[in-house]
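Comment thread on ticket #2218

A.B. wrote:
> Attaching the input chain for the structure job we discussed in standup.
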Amino acid sequence: MAWEVRKLGDVCEILDNKRKPITKRDRIEGEYPYYGATGILSYVDEYIFDEKLVLIGEDGAKWESGDNTSFIVEGKYWVNNHAHVIRPNRKIVLDEWIVNYLNFSDLRVYVTGLTVPKLNQEKMKSIEIPIPPLAEQKRIVAKLDEAFSAILTAKENAEKNLKNAKELFESYLNNIFEEKGKDWEEKKLGEVAEIKNGYSFTSKEFSSKNELKSVKITNVGVKEFIIDTENNVPSKYKTGYENYQVKVGEIVIALTRTIISAGLKVAIVPKDYDAALINQRVSAISSTKYTSNMFLYNYLCTEHVLKYVKKKVNTLMQPNLSVNDLRNTPIPLPPLKEQQRIVSKLDALSEQTKKLEAVYAKKIADLDELKKSILQKAFRGEL
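C.D. wrote:
> Ran it. Output below, let me know if you need it in another format.
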C-alpha cells in the first residue's frame, strides 16, 4: 500500500495555548520536569501536562538532520513557550513515528528569522510527513528501537574509550610533577621564563580588513590556539612595538576569563601568528637558558597549575589572573636535559593518544552516519 503524505498539523492537535513560561526567579523547585526547546531546564513544584505528548523546538533549538529537534515527554511536567506541544492522532500516526521522522529530517526550510531563528506554529503545522498504515509504523518503529539501542551501546563504549584515552595522557602528565626527582628545584615561573604583557589596543582598531595579526583572549582556548582574523590590527604597529611580539612556539595565556569549564586557557602560538602582537589581558611566556618551552607549556596544562590559578583568580566579576600571580606561579624544575627527556616522552605519548582519539572519534561519527542511514531506509519503506 502506498504511503500517504500529510501535513503535521492535519494529524496532530496543537496544545501550544496550554504551555506557560516561568521566569527563573519565579520558579519554585520541585519534582516536576520543566521543559524548554531542547529538554529539561529545571524541576518545578507544579505541572500543566499529565500525559504522553510530543515536543518540538520552536526557538533556541537546532533543526538539521540528527539534531533531535523533537522528543517524547510523559508523566507530569511543565512546558515553556520555546517548544511546541502536540498530541498526535494515534489512530493515524504514532508519537515515535513523528519524532523519528522529524529528527531525521532537515527542517531548516521551515525555519524563519535570521537573527533569531524560529520554527513558528504555522510553519511547524505545514511540515509534510509520510504516513504508512499504523501496523507498518509499529513494525518499523520496533526495528528502529532495536537498531538504535545497539548503536547507543556501541557509541557509549566508544565515547568512554575516547574519554579514557584523553585521561591517560592527563594522568601521566600530572604524575610527572607529583613524582619529582631529587635534583628538581622549586622555582617561580618568573624566575625561569620570560613573561611579557600585551599592548592596550582600542577596540575600534580590530578588523579583518587589517593585515597585522594580534592575539586577544578570544584567540586563546584550552590547549588550543583559535584563529580569528577579526582581531587584526593596523600595520602602523609593525615597528616600534617589538616588545609585544610573539614568536612561533611561544606560550600565550589568557589573563581575563583565564579558567573556563574545560580548564586553563593556555595555548601555543602557531606559525601563521609569528610576530603577531599580544593584546592586553594576554601574556606571552617564553623559555630561557634554564627551560624548555614545551616543558613549560606541559606544566601549565597540569592540574597543579589549575589549582594554583583557582586560588589566585579574582572571581568577583570573572576569573582574572594578575601578571604578578602568573610570575609567582610555583614550578618544580628539573635540569634542562631532564626537561627535554620528559618532553620527548610526552610527545610520544601525545602522538599515541591522538591516534587513539582519531580512531574513537571516527567510530562515533560512523555510528551517527549509520543511524541516519537506517532512518533513511525506514522512511523510504526499505526497512
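A.B. wrote:
> Thanks. Noting for the ticket: The radius of gyration is 27 Å.
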